[in-house]
Amino acid sequence: MQKLYIHKKYPHVFDFLTNSIQEESPEVKEVVKNKVDAIYERGTKLIYQDIDYSKFREEIDVEKAIEILNWTMFGFGDKAIQQIDTFENMIEFGEQYLKDWQSYAEILKLSFYK
Q1: How far apart are alpha carbons 32 and 53 in whole angstroms?
Q2: Of 2, 17, 8, 112, nearest to 60 (Cα)?
Q3: Which helix (H) or strand (E) holds 12?
Q4: What is d(CA 41, CA 39) in angstroms, rounded to the nearest whole number?
Q5: With CB atoms 3.0 to 4.6 Å apart as the test, which of 37, 55, 57, 93 could cross-link to 87 if both were Cys?
Q6: What's the number of domains the chain is made of?
């Protein structure tokens, strides 16, 4: 949701960040990489710190399941960003977004959880 609020307020910020990550200029490439890596590492730690791995089915490769979850979440977030400009009211959009996400989350739980 935070990503959506930021995108609504600053619609070009994620394009800027994407372009900065893809920068090839030797003068700034390493600086950008170091900053992005640190932020990504901190964010990843926060996201995964409270996962209850005991809920996963035994026959599931948990690392692959988490990777599928990541792809799904990022894809769902990108889809939302493409739709965000069609909503005037961010609260209404957020409620719809979370409701839609819950239906996907239920499918994922059935797929990966005991």
Answers
A1: 33
A2: 112
A3: none
A4: 5
A5: 93
A6: 1
d(CA 50, CA 37): 21
Question: In terms of residue numbers, what domain contains 18?
Answer: 2-112
Instruction: Quick: pLDDT tens for 11-39.
Output: 787 778 777 778 888 888 888 888 888 88
Q: Token digits for 78?
A: 């990108």
Residue type, 70: N
Q: What is the reported pLDDT for 89?
A: 67
CA quadruple 82, 87, 89, 93: dihedral sign: negative
How many other CB atoms sit within 10 Å of the CB of residue 93? 20
Length of the chain (residues)? 114
Q: Report, in angstroms and rounded to the nearest whole number, the Rg of the chain calculated over CA atoms.
A: 17
